[in-house]
UniProtKB/TrEMBL annotation:
It is found in: Membrane. Residues 101-512 form the Amino acid transporter transmembrane domain. It comes from the Eukaryota. The lineage of its organism: Eukaryota, Viridiplantae, Streptophyta, Embryophyta, Tracheophyta. The chain crosses the membrane at residues 121-145, 180-203, 250-271, 291-309, 340-361, 381-405, 426-447, 453-475, 487-512. Residues 1-49 are annotated as: Disordered. The keyword Transmembrane applies. InterPro entries: AA_transpt_TM. This is Lysine histidine transporter-like 8. Keywords: Amino-acid transport, Membrane, Transmembrane, Transmembrane helix, Transport. GO terms for cellular component: membrane. Residues 26-42 have a biased composition (Polar residues). GO terms for biological process: amino acid transport.
Length: 524
């Protein structure tokens, strides 16, 4: 007689809300296990109810041990299969979401590869206009600011129950609306992807040329390859490596890119500080003839610092490669990997900025650390050591090209699969990647000054890193109005927009004032 109430209690939860996915992917092995979809429920309901909320310690306390064991097992099962996400079958065909077996190690490799690169080499150039105090302050504020917005993006990846925002533009559409989200996010993310790929071709090709000159020395042939031909050689290598199918498949390349970036960044500042400083060195900010020129130069320098912290346009894409369940959400390994990655990024950026400025002061060439090493210490540093530094830069550029090009590959294949309703064949996929590689090459040949536009690139793409995540947090998470969280994110977002406009103006002024002649390396 006493067991009847227990039976009634057990029969209460029929789990009507733990729905199955509306659409199943054609490739179950490569697709994630779904997450919970709450249909017709408000956000408040989604936060307050889970598929196992009825199985609480208070509910289990009066039940005997065998029945308790059954319900505990059922709770674990529901936590695995009751977190069902509405899946898009197209995701199983696209390079970003094709493979979902990522982990914290992959996240660390990808974030390191995306976060350290050639842009770090021009940080001392920014210090030559800002000086010691403002240079260190600006770099420190930018680092912690972008670390906060990185955390926001990681948390917003699954902000809505039953939905994973696998791409930056998707999250922007959820926050700002379908049309406005595309207008706000598509241009800067495409600009970051395609513009960075083009700049990597320029930097990689020029570095290969210098590496050849250092290794070959006076024995070089009378008809060496031109700079454009070196661009073509580097582009061909990039296209060969780009045939790897998806984002998870380039984890090994990202590891190579991360290791080479840490190594050459360390070698660059160690070799610089170990050599005698130029006799006429000065640490006063570079003086310009007018106040306006000085102001715009400072803004351009701060834009260079902002451009150093790129890679936020890839955060959601990296997190999309991880499986996610109710018990093991993807944001946990993603944040673990990101913390490790940005610790090493800080260990590279701050020494190269401070050490490079200490070694060269305001005599720092406009091309950054590699130009300074080549100009001041070509005869002081062993040729083999200098050649190794340049070779590491080439390897890093090859690896970085892959991860920054992946969103473009994903967009091409998304357009193809949406029209044909079938996955890309290996020939179509290869064709898209060859097309993208050579388009980037031709843009680099037509605009060879692109690699010098770090300030302008930093200004135009700054909202992706510093502004939009703050706005998206307020619009999606909806913190209490006029609370500290609400004010803090609105202020940071609008400051990011203001800095974007100011840095873009400074970058345009610097570009025009210097006649588009700045290069990462002096032409030889």
């Amino acid at each position: 007689m006493e067991e009847r109430p227990e039976t009634e209690l057990i029969s209460i939860p029929a789990t009507p809300r733990a729905s199955t996915p509306e659409i199943l992917t054609p490739s179950g092995q490569r697709s994630p296990r779904g997450g919970h979809t709450s249909t017709g429920a408000s956000n408040k309901d989604a936060k307050s109810w889970t598929p196992t909320s009825f199985i609480s310690p208070r509910f289990l306390s009066p039940i005997g041990t065998p029945m308790k064991r059954v319900l505990v097992n059922m709770k674990g099962y529901l936590e695995e299969v009751g977190h069902l996400t509405k899946l898009n079958p197209q995701d199983a065909w696209l390079p970003i979401t094709e493979s979902r077996n990522g982990n914290a190690h992959y996240a660390a490799f990808h974030n390191l590869n995306a976060g350290i690169g050639f842009q770090a080499l021009v940080l001392p150039v920014a210090f030559s206009f800002l000086g010691w105090s403002w240079g260190v302050i600006s770099l420190t504020i930018a680092y912690f600011w972008q670390l906060y917005t990185l955390w926001i993006l990681v948390q917003l990846h699954e902000a809505v129950p039953g939905k994973r925002y696998n791409r930056y533009v998707e999250l922007a559409q959820a926050a700002f609306g379908e049309r406005l989200g595309v207008w706000l996010a598509l241009f800067p993310t495409v600009y970051l992807s395609a513009g960075t790929a083009t700049a990597l071709i320029l930097v990689g090709g020029e570095t290969m040329k210098l590496f050849f000159q250092i290794v070959c020395g006076p024995l070089c042939s009378s008809n060496p390859l031109t700079t454009v031909e070196w661009y073509l050689v580097f582009t061909s290598l990039c296209i060969v490596l780009s045939q790897l199918p998806n984002l998870n498949s380039i984890a090994g390349l990202s590891l190579v890119g991360a290791v080479t970036a840490i190594t050459y960044a360390t070698m660059a500042w160690v070799l610089s500080v170990s050599q005698p400083r130029p006799p006429s060195i000065s640490y006063e900010p570079i003086s310009l003839p007018s106040y306006t020129a000085s102001l715009f130069s400072v803004l351009n320098a701060m834009g260079i610092i902002a451009f150093t912290f790129r890679g936020h346009n890839l955060v959601l894409e990296i997190q999309a490669t991880m499986p996610s369940t109710f018990k093991h959400p993807a944001h946990v390994p993603m944040w673990k990997g990101a913390k490790v990655a940005y610790f090493f990024i800080a260990m590279c950026l701050f020494p190269i900025a401070i050490g490079g400025f200490w070694a060269y002061g305001n005599l720092m060439p406009s091309g950054g650390m590699l130009s300074a090493l080549y100009a001041f210490h070509i005869h002081d540093i062993p040729r083999g050591l200098l050649a190794m530094t340049f070779l590491l830069v080439v390897f890093n550029c090859l690896s970085s090209f892959q991860i920054y090009s992946m969103p473009a590959f994903d967009s091409f294949e998304a357009g193809y699969t949406s029209r044909t309703n079938r996955p890309c064949s290996i020939w179509v996929r290869s064709g898209f990647r060859i097309f993208f590689g050579f388009v980037s090459f031709f843009i680099g040949v037509a605009l060879p000054f692109l690699s010098s536009l770090a300030g302008l690139l930093g200004g135009l793409t700054l909202p992706v890193t510093f502004a939009y995540p703050c706005f998206m947090w307020v619009l999606i998470k909806k913190p209490t109005k006029y609370s500290f969280n609400w004010y803090f994110n609105w202020i940071l977002g609008w400051l990011g927009v203001a800095f974007s406009l100011a840095f873009s103006i400074g970058g345009i002024w610097s570009m025009v004032n210097n006649g588009l002649k700045l290069r990462f390396f002096k032409p030889s």
